Amino acid sequence: MMEIDRADGRTPNQLRPLACSRNILHRAHGSASWSQGDTKVLAAVYGPKAGTKKNENPEKACIEVIWKPKTGQIGKLEKEYEMILKRTLQSICILTINPNTTTSVIVQVVHDDGALLTCAINAACAALVDAGIPIKHLAVAICCCLAEDGYVILDPTKLEEQQKMKGFAFLVFPNSIHSVLPEGSLLVEGEPVEHGIITSVTHGLMSVEEYLKCLERGHAASAKLSDFLRRSLKLQLPSDSSKAK
Amino acid sequence: MGLPNVSGDLSAEMEVDAFRRLFPLRFYERHLSESIRPDARPLGRARDTTLALGAVASADGSALAKIGSTTMLAAIKMEVMSPSTDSPDEGCIAIDFHMPPICSPIVRPGRPVEAAPVVSKQLSDTILSSGMINLKELSLVSGKAAWMAYLDIYCLDADGALFDAALLSAVAAFSHLQIPIVFLNDDGKIVVVSEEGEGGKLDKEPVNKEKRKLTLRSLPFSLTCILHKNYILADPTAEEESIMELL
Questions:
Q1: CB-based contact B149:B138 (threshold 8 Å)
Q2: Which helix (H) or strand (E) element contains residue B90?
Q3: pLDDT at B171
Q4: Of the candidates B117, B131, B246, which has its C-beta nearest A80's C-beta?
Q5: Which residues form the Exoribonuclease phosphorolytic domain (chain B) (predicted)?
Q6: What's the DSSP call for residue B98?
Q7: Chain A residues in contact with B121 (beta carbon < 8 A)
Q8: Which of A17, A118, B140, B187 is 20 to 30 A distant from A87 in Cα terms?
Q9: Confidence bin at A206 (pLDDT 50/70/90)
Q10: Dihedral sign of CA atoms A150, A152, A153, A156 in order
Q11: Of B92, B196, B193, B186, whose CA–CA distance to B134 is shortest?
């Protein structure tokens, strides 16, 4: 199979350089900034606050997402991203621990150079960890883009999205679990938790086989991302305790 | 608080309706274990669907779609506009989805529903990327005039599977659409021919002689499903959507 040439010289399976930093906003209960190449997103978490919104179930904690674009007014695209993020975060948080509370996640786009939604999901997840909101496992998001000739490339830049986009898929997987508990307790229906998928959003026309190919490529890359996430979230701990007032 | 015991003791004595309101998840799980749903549908069956074309007489194309109780009214109005410079021989489609307060008790006037802009955007993405409509067919005079189709979909009754019903009504409205007759007058402007006969006084050639329909290629179709524990339910109602989590 021919290799496809990407503008910045990456292989189809290679992700852009990742950077994650936590605790950057001092007033927010939790905050994180995540960047993949030039795409950078800032996420802040406030909560849990008392009370839920009107139509929400009071027996569970509620998550509210506010998406702020870099420029322009808030429109349908932002509302769609808010709903996707809200549903994804709801499935990773343990909602029964703090019932009748609202946790607000605010996402601010700093720069958009492709794969914006995945960057935002990763940033929101890191911010939730920083705030100490109880979550079952982390969410790792990947963007796969399908080019006209059927190649799957991961983590497209804005230029690649506009040129090659026959279709693309945003996939969110649970991260791999390293645990002290014995193997058996982590299996869901006999399969390890990380074989599952949390969210999948697709755009454009693609066949079922192409979608399944995107799924397995994304899944393979999610293992690398979840290692990075684990390493970057661990490092902060010793310095945090010295910051205690 | 001993909740499981409470429901176990009372379930024999409680009325079905009360049990359904108080313990909805248990009510549904009792049904799912028998592979059936409260409205007697098997798990994989969608509700009865009806489609009526031409529901709005004054619109250029319209359709009313019902999936079970979920009702959507779609109508298309065509207007002439000048095309953008980077696609001078393509028309444009603007899709908007509204959820007026009539559709559901959770929608109140003044507070926009969370779901409406999301469904609206998903609809436009689906219709534009499916290749159903060739935008070049909407062009009149290349570079100067093209059709803009305003598609408005109103939800009249929201009972689950909103996106499915909306997509069905949108596709049906496009299939019913008849592009009106226009002609080019001396100023170079496009004028729409009105219905009441101008008869033989037309001394200018109409740009399109008769009302034509759009050719639709691949029609997009959707099905909403819910995954709950081991069961996959197709075409959920609003009640099922609100108690089961994974959509």
A1: yes
A2: none
A3: 92
A4: B117
A5: 46-180
A6: E
A7: 76-77, 79-80
A8: A17
A9: confident
A10: positive
A11: B92
ipTM, 2 decimals? 0.79
| Cβ–Cβ contact B115 with A under 8 A | yes
Residue in B117, B245, B246 nearest the CB of A76:
B117
Interface A:B, Cβ pairs < 8 A: 29
- The candidate with the shortest Cα–Cα distance to B75, out of B67, B66, B65, B63, is B63
CA distance A22 to chain B (A): 30
- A141 and A92 Cβ atoms separated by less than 8 Å: no
- Please tell me the total count of domains within chain B: 1
CA atoms within 13 A on the CB side of A146: 21
DSSP-derived 3-state class of residue A143: strand
Which residues of chain A does B3 touch, with a Cβ-Cβ cutoff of 8 Å? none
> What is the Cα–Cα distance from A66 to B182, expressed in whole angstroms?
46
Nearest to B111 by CA among B99, B125, B127, B93: B99
Residue B135 lies inside a defined structural domain of this protein: yes
A166 contacts chain B (CB < 8 A): no
Q: Express each pLDDT in B167-207 by its tens digit.
A: 999 999 999 988 888 777 766 666 766 543 333 334 455 55
Pairwise CA distance, residues A221 & A229, whole Å: 13
Over chain B (247 residues), what is each successive 10-residue block's mean pLDDT?
Answer: 47 75 84 86 88 90 92 92 83 90 85 86 87 82 84 91 91 89 71 50 51 81 84 86 69
Range of the domain at B172: 49-178+213-220
What's the whole-model pTM score? 0.83
Q: What percent of chain B is modeled with pLDDT above 90? A: 18
Phi and psi at residue A215, to the nearest 5°: -60, -45
Residue B162 in domain: yes
* CB < 8 Å to A76, chain B: 117-118, 120-121
C-alpha torsion sign, points A192, A194, A199, A200:
negative
Q: Test A205 with B130 for CB contact under 8 angstroms.
A: yes
**Helix or strand or coil: residue A226?**
helix
Residue B85 lies in a domain: yes
Which residues of chain B does A79 touch, with a Cβ-Cβ cutoff of 8 Å? Answer: 114, 117-118, 121
pLDDT in tens, A135-157: 888 888 888 888 777 778 888 88
Sign of CA dihedral A78, B226, A144, B221: negative
Pick the residue from chain A with its C-alpha nearest to B230: A189
Domain CATH for B104: 3.30.230.70
For residues A78, A81, A86 and A88, what is the CA-based torsion angle, rounded to 10 degrees? -170
